């Protein structure tokens, strides 16, 4: 178990998409270190399940309904959180995901077979995926940013992806959005550097989540062909586990550990990005 980061105790963390597989693990861990955790989801009930887990372990948390693409919704969520916890010191932009309308059924256009090609993708689906993964982080950073600037050691942590560095086949909208996250992380880091607000990102390698489950696991529980490619390209020869992200999360969140770190995206990928395939 990771030793407690006492510097985080009493501070408030806001996590968009906080009920997801990865972000819920982050929420539980931050609460274990004494942070008050506000989980934002479009459906408050999903976040409430995580809140119950945190409270059962002795932590402090709340679930707030908010749509990261609706500024008014985010402003109302901010007011609710400030009313409960009084301040915001950490924002984790974790809301994201994919949509069938923004996925091709084949990896390359010349492959034989039926299904959705590049030319069949729906503009609405593409825009929704891009917006949820990128614009949502922009809006949440705007809405909560002014509160963060009031804190002594504020931080924003964005959730990126391996697809930001080299786009995965089949998921162009998601890949483009995550590449934008990396760039935006650097831009914000420079823009706010003199204020004390640090902005960094974590780029998970391949983790099994609700969003990618059907792409990676067959109905019979075996690995898909895509999964086999991933494992072959990951030197550690496994998928990541949510707990694999927590050390990096705490390092970036705790100014006493990373006070001179801003504008970086940290891969947590089992060596995937370092491996040439040879």
UniProtKB/TrEMBL annotation:
Pfam families: adh_short (PF00106). GO terms for molecular function: glucose 1-dehydrogenase [NAD(P)+] activity. CDD domains: mannonate_red_SDR_c. Its EC number is 1.1.1.47. Gene3D superfamilies: NAD(P)-binding Rossmann-like Domain. It comes from the Bacteria. PROSITE patterns: ADH_SHORT. One of its GO terms (biological process) is carbohydrate metabolic process. Keywords: Oxidoreductase. Belongs to the short-chain dehydrogenases/reductases (SDR) family. This is D-mannonate oxidoreductase. It comes from Bacillus spizizenii (strain DSM 15029 / JCM 12233 / NBRC 101239 / NRRL B-23049 / TU-B-10) (Bacillus subtilis subsp. spizizenii).
């Amino acid at each position: 178990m990771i030793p407690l980061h006492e510097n985080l105790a009493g501070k408030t963390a806001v996590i968009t998409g906080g009920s997801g597989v990865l972000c819920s693990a982050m929420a539980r861990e931050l609460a274990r270190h004494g942070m008050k955790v506000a989980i934002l989801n479009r459906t408050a009930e999903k976040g409430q399940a995580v809140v119950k887990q945190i409270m059962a372990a002795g932590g402090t948390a709340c679930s707030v309904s908010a749509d990261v693409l609706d500024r008014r919704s985010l402003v109302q969520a901010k007011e609710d959180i400030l009313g409960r916890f009084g301040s915001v010191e950490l924002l984790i932009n974790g809301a994201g995901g994919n949509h069938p309308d923004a996925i091709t059924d084949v990896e390359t256009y010349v492959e034989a077979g039926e299904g959705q090609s590049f030319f069949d993708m729906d503009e609405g689906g593409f825009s929704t995926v891009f917006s949820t993964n990128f614009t949502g982080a922009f809006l949440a950073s705007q809405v909560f940013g002014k509160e963060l600037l009031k804190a002594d050691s504020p931080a924003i942590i964005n959730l990126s992806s391996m697809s930001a560095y080299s786009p995965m086949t089949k998921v162009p909208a998601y890949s483009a959005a995550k590449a934008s996250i990396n760039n935006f992380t650097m831009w914000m880091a420079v823009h706010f550097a003199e204020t004390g607000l640090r902005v960094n990102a974590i780029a998970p390698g391949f983790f099994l989540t609700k969003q990618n489950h059907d792409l990676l696991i067959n109905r019979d529980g075996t690995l898909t062909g895509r999964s086999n490619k991933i494992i072959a390209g990951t030197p550690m020869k496994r998928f990541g586990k949510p707990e694999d992200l927590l050390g990096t999360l705490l390092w970036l969140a705790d100014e006493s550990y990373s006070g001179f770190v801003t504008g970086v995206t940290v891969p947590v990928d089992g060596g995937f990005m370092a491996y040439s395939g040879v």
